[in-house]
Specification:
By secondary structure, the chain is mainly alpha-helical. It contains 18 helices and six strands. The N and C termini lie far apart (about 65 Å). Bound molecules: acetyl coenzyme *A (ACO).
Length: about 425
């Protein structure tokens, strides 16, 4: 936009009029540029939790939370869920275009070639105590990757980003499966050249010398779909963490490791495990859903309905709608009758007809039904958030890459100090 076309908002402050440029995105989202505010006025803006703060310009993902729209690089997530694979979606996020046949073949082959973990890293798994949460193992192992493959900093970005991104997407899958095998005391299963991304992961998880794993195409498709739906979600907590850490020119692996830690929290990706935990507690209380709904509404009780509510969506999360349908389809195909699915649907029905949830626009989010699919696949509950991380990797990498290419300034918010004013040291 040229200087003369720029529109301005006016701020009347201390008898002065400050003109603040108005910005508009390609989907008509509007913002006010306050970057010069402090220099001109001495004031800062305050927005804990970043309800109204745009921290960057991004071309990766568009969300309209009021209308329930989610698009990766312009393509509706519903179309990708129906027609694409996770590997195609990952390519789309990383390269801003869907791959043609040749590009897809080359990308898949690179994923295959980089699926092995450095043999010395296998010993790391021995150091974790029994019962360590796989998300902690995952973030540690990703950070450790940069000591084995150190060349992914800003300077070598141009040469290495394709290789590094692919290696990360591929090896993290191997790390996740190894961590699981280690936790149950079974021998590690290496990646196989002949299996595509999701089937390869399932084989590493479930194959054993005494019970070979048979790839089930419905299970593979359900996993592929879940990974697609988790692949990106613009400036959520973990992606913001990746961008913030990366803004100090921290390498790709360490930035992603920080993102994994952010994702593990129960208010973010950790909610998928917390949902199943909550449903089981409801089941133990003889299905007294109303009691849990009342607890969630009670301001003196910290309990919240897990898998409900979202900072951005003020209507149904489009991912939850697809996941709910997939959940039904898969359970039917596998002839599984999971009482937790019936309970979840009943809970959804009660909550979405309750004034408290209606007034606050609280609907099921991506985490509400995903755990029931993971259960049907045989993935243990403490691995649910690891599955989320596998899906989110291409998004994190795309944002790190975008952030670096924009010559982003170091992230460094300000504060309003509310502590003691000047006082002096007193001798004991
Ligand atoms: N159960 C009960 N009440 C809720 C819930 C919930 N799950 N979520 C929000 N509320 C209420 C809040 O108490 C608040 O009420 P008030 O206005 O009377 O004070 C109001 O709704 C707004 O909630 P905020 O906390 O201000 O919303 P925010 O955008 O900060 O939080 C969040 C979003 C963290 C997702 C929240 O809805 C929540 O805790 N949900 C449960 C955890 C969860 O499912 N997280 C996964 C989110 S998806 C993802 O990250 C992948």
């Amino acid at each position: 936009m040229s200087e003369s076309e720029t529109k301005y908002a006016e701020l009347h402050l201390d008898g002065k009029v400050i003109r603040l440029p108005i910005l508009e995105g390609t989907e008509q989202e509007k913002g006010i540029d306050i970057s010069a505010l402090r220099k001109e006025t001495g004031y800062i803006t305050v927005d804990p939790g970043f309800f109204n703060t745009g921290a960057c310009y991004s071309k990766v993902t568009f969300i309209d939370g009021e209308k329930g729209i989610l698009r990766y690089r312009g393509i509706p997530v519903e179309e990708l869920a129906e027609k694409a694979t996770f590997v195609q979606t990952a390519y789309l996020l990383l390269h801003d275009r869907l791959p043609n046949e040749k590009q897809l073949k080359a990308f898949s082959s690179l994923l295959n070639l980089n699926s092995m973990l450095h043999e010395d890293m296998r010993h790391f798994f021995d150091g974790f105590p029994r019962g360590a949460h796989p998300m902690h193992i995952l973030s540690t192992m990703i950070n450790a990757l940069c000591t084995f493959y150190p060349n992914v900093d800003m300077l070598s970005l141009k040469e290495d980003i394709n290789l590094s991104a692919t290696r990360l997407i591929s090896t993290v899958r191997t790390v996740a499966a190894f961590a699981y095998k280690k936790s149950i005391g079974e021998p590690i299963v290496y990646p196989r050249y002949d299996l595509p991304y999701c089937a390869n992961f399932l084989n590493m998880m479930f194959d054993s010398p005494v019970k070979p794993y048979e790839v089930n195409k419905d299970v593979v498709r359900a996993l592929d779909l879940l990974l697609i739906l988790h692949a990106d979600h613009e400036q959520n907590c973990s992606t913001t963490t990746v961008r913030t850490v990366g803004s100090a020119q921290v390498d790709l692996y360490a930035s992603i490791s920080a993102g994994v830690s952010a994702l593990s929290g129960p208010l973010h990706g950790g909610a998928n495990q917390a949902v199943i935990d909550m449903l089981r507690k409801i089941m133990r209380s003889e299905g007294n859903i109303q009691k849990f709904v009342e607890r969630a509404k009670d301001k003196n009780n910290p309990f919240r309905l897990m898998g409900f509510g979202h900072r951005i969506y003020k209507t149904f999360d489009p991912r939850a709608t697809i996941i709910k349908k997939t959940c039904h389809d898969l359970l039917e195909k596998l002839k599984i009758n999971d009482p937790l699915l019936d309970l979840a649907m009943e809970l959804e029905d009660i909550a979405t007809h309750d004034d408290y949830f209606i007034e606050r626009n609280l609907y099921p989010n991506v985490d509400f039904y995903s755990g029931i699919i993971y259960r049907a696949i045989g993935i243990p509950e403490n691995m649910f958030t690891v599955m989320f991380a596998l899906g989110r990797l291409p998004g994190w990498i795309a944002h790190w890459q975008e952030m670096i290419s924009q010559n982003t300034k170091i992230s460094r918010p300000r504060q309003i100090y509310t502590g003691k004013t000047l006082r002096h040291y007193e001798k004991i």
